Amino acid sequence: MNEPVAGSPQKDISKEPDIVFDCQVRSRDLPGQSKVLTLGAPTKEVAVQRLIAQGYVVISIQAQGEKKSGFWNIFSRQPLSPGKASKKVPTSIFNSVSTRETIFFGIQLSTLLKAGIPLLRSLEIVQRGIANPYFQKVLGHIRKRIMEGGTFSVALRTYSDVFPWVWANLVEVGEATGKLPDCLEEIVHYQESAARIKSKVITAFFYPGILTFAVVIALTFLLLFIVPKFAAIFQAQKMALPVLTQIVVAASNVVRFYFLWVVGAVVAIIITLAYSSKLASIKMGYDRLSLNAPVFGPIMLHVSVIRFTRSLGTLLRSGVQILQALEIAGRLVENRHIEASIKRVAQRVRGGQGLGIQLEVQKIFPVFVTQLIAIGEESGQLDRFLDLLSNYYEEQVDAFLARLTTLLEPFLLVFMGGVIGTIVISMFLPIVELSTQAGMR
Fold this sequence. Notes:
With about 450 residues, the protein is mainly α. It is built from 16 helices and three strands.
């Protein structure tokens, strides 16, 4: 197999100037070993197609000289290649595709393909039935790329803002094995499970979030408008204020006279946290702390177990080899600390050791998880046991969130009522003391 090398750009019928790409690839025959190659091509899509034609699985591809990270990358995407306009459909806040729409797309496409309808015709049928105009344009561009000789998986990679990268990986497996409809079903099953877990977590914290926001607004109103009026009265009467009242008045003065500074500090903290979370070492620390956090640590670990077992089972059923499946599943956990541990597990699995045993050695998941995975390996039913684990822990997460919501709402009400009540009491304490002193006279 001839590997592309730097300095020898291949000819292209478009005669466009070639861009040199740094490509991290993995051979299909040796899925556990990756390497970095350089390749000259007019666009990133052409480079990916050439690598796939030579028998490589593309892990990442980056134009030389293109920035990989930076402050503004938090808020925007880099172009596909320097000096070239992207051929993607222009995106904006109004041009988006929901997870539910991609799930319906996968269901419809899988059904049509199973009925024996060719891919291009199936995409055309689905495109005509979609109400989202942006999604229609995306599918139109995908069909055009396929008609020009590209593969479905490469076309999906071009629209990572619409299709999660797991789509391209599993579709590529389906194209290689001839089981594209089955792989689409697995994608839909995984996306439905992931969306269900995300929805449950958001729902559990929605009401407490609304309460917290309402109390912050109420506190700001009290400190900006009500407390200063009482403070002016106390100052005019030259009253000696209790300690509690002095603290509240001081807080009011800070908010009134340094409001912009306070807001600026809060915004700076948020931006700093957002930027630092993009750095691998700091993100690793955040993720490790999240697993050890009181109350919320266990729920984060359970969610990670669900993501790992669900994704790994989906990948194995789709025909992905165990080492590649572990790499993808580790990324889908969305926790750098766990992902690093899974990579170490994959290294030992490559050496012939058992997955369940190595997961237990790393101590990243509960013993119950590692033992069932080991039993699944021994019985040859690993994907079945992974499904059992994901279903079990999903039930545990449901029960935990239900209990947490039940306990959190009254706790927040009492806490927030106490804070507001403290401010009110602090304002009336001097008046009560003044009335008492006047009565004693």
